[in-house]
Sequence to fold (498 residues):
Amino acid sequence: MKSDTITAIATAMSDSGIGIVRVSGDEAISIVDKIYQNVHHEKVLKQYKSHTIHYGFIVDEEGALVDEVMVSVMKAPRSYTTEDTVEINCHGGVLIVQKILSLVMKAGARIAEPGEFTKRAFLNGRIDLSKAEAVMDMIHAKNEFALQTSIKQLKGSLSDKIKILREEILYEIAYIESALDDPEHISLEGYYERLLDKSEHILKELNRLLDSADDGRMLKEGIHTVIVGKPNVGKSSLLNVLAGKERAIVTDVAGTTRDTLEETISLGNITLNIIDTAGIRNTEDIVEKIGVEKARKISEEADLILYVIDVSEPLDESDQDIIKMIAGKNTIILLNKSDLKEIVNEQSVLDVMSSITSNHLSLVQEEKEQSIGMCLDEKSDLTYQRIEGIEYSIYLIKTSTKEEYGIDLLTSLIKDMFFHGQLIYNDEVYITNIRHKEAVYDAKKSMLEVHKSLDMNMPEDFYAIDLMSAYASLGLIIGEEVGDDLVNEIFSKFCMGK
Ligand code: GDP
Fold:
């Protein structure tokens, strides 16, 4: 199939060392040939071998010199798009690159849509959709984890996994179909158990992928963390200590943190997106009220709640409200201001919790050796305690944001809570794309239906249908069974020239 020839500026539009104008399509070489000359003023681009780069000049319609350039030629099918591709490396000024782009267009190329080069790579079968998306993720990567996962995805870690699962499902579909077609030679005797085993295995793999999606999101975007607590307990101070700089305004007057502040904080390999909220308490101040309502809402959506208590002040009704709010959420309670005389301790928190829940709760002292991961500071005897119960699994740490005591323990605990102390560059295939997560989720739903049909002794063609839809859902990830609309939507999010 003949394709038109597209062009775009592939580098950032700013003053820079070089700029690259990319041209791809059947006419790429002959189009650039019209505006390129070698040092002998010859137009010889067509004669160059594939994968070679040449010094020369770009000239305009009148033959006037525009820039000195290096031009690389990559002939089909061994190029990014699988089409003939020429890249013009010119000087990096905005005007120069734009001028060369417009010359290429006058010579017959049309401007590429965002992501169109990668779209061609996908449509021409060189890469699958998950790899194309990995290219975009690489460009947008904001931290080392995001970069590493997208490189792995580009190399095919996710595609390989999905392809294996699809093959396994397809084998079962084919087996059932053949048995139904040819019952004399292929028996479904004992098949029920085999398929049950198989579907359990597939469900396990799908669940692992779904779990990785949560870890993946938190590693890529950060753990959505909210700091709650009454006014004046040290929330802003905590934020400052974690951020390592004066960000929130710290004052002695209760309720000064009126709205929410957001701060992205790197703790080694992981990122916390910390939201500092207005103090949670009953108040008539309307501005504070907005802050408080917002705080509640944010807490509901957070991955982690840091609940700060001032140990020098007794717990009151507001603390009860907060404790109700943190039920069932990943929470660390900071017994802050532990440099002052302590009125509140772990036991007092347990007592308040016990008074508002009918569940049995107990306080567990984490032994140094037993504590998760390696989060204890070897030099000190800092440990943390944990409140265990059906609704609550809450860690308690003594801190002093003033003396920066307990802060290292807090950061290690967060790492351990979320990533089980593992370093993140393991071989796990992570899902970091919401589209992929939805597809895996749909596949899981279909596989659960397969299970149900097997349990209910339904006829074979029932579960064959669900196997088929699991197969189709997973296909969406690598770009099989996707419609034009979706393809267009995905690539429209790409940047120009990619
Ligand atoms: P917020 O209203 O919860 O954000 O509390 P702030 O961070 O503004 O702190 C209120 C007051 O408590 C300030 O005067 C802080 O210096 C003080 N403070 C914060 N953390 C500690 C601590 O660990 N120990 C002591 N003694 N004072 C603290």
The mean pLDDT is 84. The longest helix spans residues 191-221. The two ends are 22 Å apart (CA to CA).
